[in-house]
Amino acid sequence: MNQLVKDLMVPISEYATVSKGATLYEAVLALEKAQEKYDQTKTQHRAVLVMDKQNKIVGKLSQLNVLRALESGNEGTDHIGEIEKFGFSTKFVANLRERSRLKDISFRKMCIKPAGMKVEKFMKTLSENQYVEENTSLDVAIYQLMAGPYLSLMVVRDQDAVGILRLTDIFLAVVDAMKANKANKAK
Fold it and tell me: Is CATH 3.40.50.300 what the domain over 5-186 is classified as, yes or no?
């Protein structure tokens, strides 16, 4: 039997969500709350879904997006994101960021300004390649994730988002399949 996307997806009702217009602080609190409620035997969520007034998903805010928001309090680093596009090494760009960082500012102070900013400034909108129908076979979804490359896909039913298919959940399914194959081969 071929596994389907809907067999592994996390339902939207179990995922962290905020409304468009929410602050970054409200988003990180929503993520923290969702992680506390989520089944501790599973991998925790690493993103918050942003929804419009019609409860349609308009974007996703990852933990990495939140960390990048910390730079928003330092106007001196705005241009550095542009430099990355020209192929400079990660180490070089990190060094530039460090040298441009506001001196004598504590980590806690770095978090003040971004906390009050709107999630729309930092969220990523989803491309059409990041959506997958719930009845799609898992092997097709794996290729779609790799082609992205994405960390998750939005699962839809009749064009309405119903869940998230996360890379971590697929990876766990791959591990389980490998174990089952090994056990069957040993028999």
Answer: no
